[in-house]
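Q: Got a minute? One more chain.
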Amino acid sequence: MLYLLDANALISAHRTWYGMKRVPEFWSWLRYHGGLNALKMPAEIYAEVETGKDELATWMKDASSRKALLLNETSDPQKVQAVLARYGSLLNESDLITIGQDPFLIAAALGHTVRCVVTAEVSKAKRTGPRRHVPDVCDDCNVQWMHPVTFIQTLDFSTGWDDLDKLLG
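A: Always. Here it is, folded:
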């Protein structure tokens, strides 16, 4: 399975429980699995994070992170258009700005049974138009998706703190 990370999966991890200074092994773990081609980010999604001005953006700009995490594929315009159609047929420029880069993420998984989108967004099935959430558009496109917590459990991340019992004697 190739897991395609949404920008919010990394941003949320960094801003909450997996801060780079707090849990540096998480970020090494991501690089490791990216190097194994188990997880990647389409260029449009990668750029969302990389253009920031925080520690996460600096990490994303690092050549090791880029090599490990950047999906080495060009987006398929037909697939992107097919995904955009799930947001509505009369989209204007303002709608496209609201939608952002999400169609590129979903399009990278479209038609692949061994790809899964990882997003921190939650389903809001009643939303329509450009305010639709990634899980709902994925469902409409028959694209697998999961929450980052499920992803972390699936790839079995741990910090190695099982040695704490030994330290406490």
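A: The mean pLDDT is 94.
Q: Perfect, thanks.
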